[in-house]
Structure formats: structure tokens, C-alpha cells
Description:
Layout: E1 2-9, H1 18-34, E2 37-45, H2 56-65, E3 72-75, H3 78-81, H4 85-97, E4 101-104, H5 113-146, E5 159-161, E6 167-169, H6 171-185, H7 190-199, H8 212-220, E7 228-230, E8 233-235, H9 245-259, E9 265-266, E10 269-270, E11 277-279, E12 286-292, E13 298-304, H10 305-309, E14 319-320, H11 321-335, H12 339-357, H13 361-385, H14 391-415, H15 423-431, H16 441-451, E15 452-457, E16 461-466, H17 480-491, E17 507-519, E18 523-536
Parallel strand pairs: 1-2, 1-3, 3-4, 11-15
Antiparallel strand pairs: 5-6, 7-8, 9-10, 12-13, 13-14, 15-16, 16-17, 17-18
Amino acid sequence: MTNAVIYARYSPGPNQTDQSIEGQIHECTRFCEDNDLRIVGTYIDRKQTGRNDNRADFQKMLRDSSRRGFSTVVVWKIDRFGRNREEIAKNKAVLRMNGVRVLSAKEHIPDGPEGIILESVLEGLAEYYSANLSQNIKRGMRESALKCQFNGSGLSTGYTVDADHKYRIDPDGAAVVRTIFEMYDSGKKIADIQRYLQQSNIKTMRGKEYTHYGISRILRNRVYIGEYHWHDIVVPGGVPQIIDNDLFDRVQKRLEANKHAPAARRGDVDFLLTSKLICGNCKSTMIGDCGTGKNGARWYYYTCRAKKTKSNKCRKKSVPKEALEREVTALTAAYVLRDDVIDYIANKVVEIQKSEHDDKSMLRYFESQLKDTNKAIANIMRAIEAGIITETTRSRLEELEDTKRDLETEIIKEKVARPTIEREQVIFFLEKFRGGNVDDKEYQRKIIDTFVNKVILYDDKITITYNYSTDSTKNAENTVESIESAASAAECKCSNKSSSSPPITRILLLRCSCYFFRRGSNRTVLRSRISSVRWTVGKSACVSAHGSAPSDPLRLHQ
């Protein structure tokens, strides 16, 4: 008897299962019995396409053929061996060099010239079938895409699919997506969001922990503003919208800004204004830089990135780091930490806090997850009562019980009344920043990190915006152009005119003239003179055309 092996394969697809493998092996076994072949091995590839030979067991079979342990490979049909004529010919040549032939159990191929022709035709038909099937599938998927139907290429968090393959919002998943966007928009880092999701026991749709990459993909996914995407097909409004356009755009701007943010340290020196400092000449960011003097001393500066990289012809001179950071701190302490500003902030914190206390979306999410977990536990208990007790059953039950305890803890936390921050506490917190030493680096760091949003540095003046807001998530997205328009309008004292400048909202704006001079032999000092202070929290840098005097103290020209 001749030694033979069986090779079986089925392609990816919902209608392909292990029953296909069983059927192939049954037919091949009967063929071997009828043809006096001894089966010495079986090679099986599950859910593997035949359009290439990148299949684990197929490659193992080719390698094993060199050991001369078998002389025949039996397949159910030639298309199980492959659907690409070039690769079929190449792999048959490999087997022939090792003394191995390929036989089809269902296709009788005679020896001789006619057999060669017949085999070539069958191989060509297999390749044609594969290409035609692929084309038909793509055509069907394209038609589905034009109807904005789910095409099976991965479902985004926050969505489900109905019986018509249309996208529907999953309330629990959508709550998680909104939380991720809002946290990032409020200034949190992706690592902070990941930590929060892990501590809150919030998992992905597959029950896994959220990764840094996964959160980043969610933040960039345009499906959440209702855009349907499939290859080259883009349909605005093709899926239900979870995130509003303004929030999504702010997040994209922050992602882009962080992508190009320069390093905040150079050696052991912290540059406190990194990512906040803008060149007033070319609107590029200014980055930390250093140089060495003739006596070997190191000097630190802020330099226009565009000038440093020679991406444009900006002529902005480098600015001494210490002098600039000190002056920004001094201006902030003098003109931001005022009684009327602090009172305004305290009132707004109380207002925002009340709206947050009314938000119950996370409580509903945890309760929904607990309901699903209890249902899964009940299903396992029914299986145990029916006598199905395995190691897998026991470990799964323990896992679900741990999840249940975690979810019950989170529900208790959400139900417990959050401590209310009183107006007086906010005032006390802000007043702690008063009276600090503006030359102290730690005080500078606290002031700049807590309050400063952007600093636009010109040759003769500085414009500073601050992180005070009725909605703190709005602070980061005011453009340089809108800030400049607001500052110019403030300097013109156009309180009784309408402004055609772009709106700038929810920031405090301070502009002052500045100049540098040298004290002693090597110390550069910055001095500034306030030319205008503009506290604006409304829709425009100027009071509206109605001409009514603003009651908000932050809206008055100083």
C-alpha cells in the first residue's frame, strides 16, 4: 500500500464550519480505501482562503513532503489545494520534486496529456470561481454601503445593528463614548481616561480593558458625528450621531496640537510655557531652546519653532525663558486674582457643579451592565442545575461574580451624593494663589499650569488668555486670530459697536506692551505696561450692537 495524507480546507464565511472539514475527510478516506492508499496523516486549515498559500498546515505539508513519509496528497477537490493557478503550479512542482502527487477524490483526472489539460481547466475554474465570488461579494458590500448598512468590518463602540443591518445607538456604549470625548476635551490626557475607565470597570464591547490606542481611535473616529465610511464611500448623516460637531472639532484640534507639541523639558530645565506660547509674528509655537555663553554658562530661551526649523522666514528673536515666565506669572497674579474675578468664578463653579450632579448617565450604564451580568450568572446556574459542571463553568462563574461585586460598588459610588463644593471654598482655593513670590519656580508653575491658556508674544506686546470659563472644555480651542481680534477690539474700546471679528468665548484676555533691557552684564529683564485688559465671557470680544451695558464684571474694559 502507498502512504497518503489528506489535506482539507474551508474558507472564511458564516456558512463555513467544521462540518465542511468532516465531509471532506469522509470523502477522502473513502477514496483512499477504494484506491488502496494508507492514510498516515491529515492536514487541516480552517477559515483560510485558497487565493494564496499562506496557510499553516498547508506549508507544514509541503515541508513534511521532503521527508519522503508519504507519496500522495488527497484533496476533496482541486480548489481545496488552492485557487491561484500560479501558486498551485509552484506548489505541485515542489511536491513532484519530493516524489509526491496530488489526487482529487471527487474529480477523476486520468493520466496522460488529456489529464494535464483537464487538471488545468479545473484549476482555472477554481481561480475564476474565487475571483468571481470576490467580485460579487464586493459588489454586494458596495450596495450595502450605499444604503449605509453594516458591512461586518467591525462595529464601533456605542452602536448596535438591527435586523435590517442599520446602525442604531447603544445607550450604554454611547455614554462611554461621550465620557471619553468630554474628558479629553476638558484637558485630561488619554492615559488619565484609560485609568478612569479601568478604575470604573468599564470594558470594551469584547469585555477587554480599554487601551491607549483604542481610546485614541475612538477620539478620531468620524462615525461619532454621523459619517458612514466604507472604502471610498463617505455618507454624512449615514449613521446616528453621538458626538456633536463642535465637541468633535475641538477634540481633533487638541489631538493635532498634542501631536506636534514640543518636549516640555530640555535636560534638567522645565519650560513652563511649552505648548502655550505662540509667536506673534508667524503664529507658530515657540519651543524651549538653549545656548552656551563664552564663559561656559548655559542660557535658556523660547525660540519660534518655524524660525528654528527654517520652515518660514520668521524674524522673531528668541526670548529669555526666566524673564518671560516671571512676567507672565506677575501679570496673572496682579490682574487675574482680583476680587471681582474670583467672585465670578466661584459663582460659575457652583452653577456647573449643579448641572454635573444632575447627570445620571454613568449610573444607568453601571445598572445596565449589572443587569446583563446577573442574567449571565443565572444562565450558568441553570446549566449547573442541569448537570453541566466543568472547570470552565466554575471559572466563568467566579469571573462574573467578581464583575458583579465591582459593578455594585460603582453603583453605590454613583448613588452616594457627591460632596458639594461651596462658593466660599472656591474663593478660599483661589485666594491661596495670592501673595506668592513671582521669582519662585514652583509658584510660577502653579500659576501657569492652573490659569494660563495661551500666551501670544510679539516684539512689543504680550496677549495672554486664561482658563476661566462657564464651560471649561471650551478654553483650549480659541484660535490665535480670534484672540487677536478680541484684543484689538478691546484696545479700540468699541463697547457701543458691533464687532465683525471672530467670536471669542469663555476666556479672560489680557494685553500689555513689553520691552526688554539688560541689567548688569548678563541679566535680561522684561518689563510690561498694561495697554488693555479685556475680560470676556460672551459671544463677542465687544458688547453687542444692542448697546446695553454688561452686568458681568468680567466684561468691563479695565
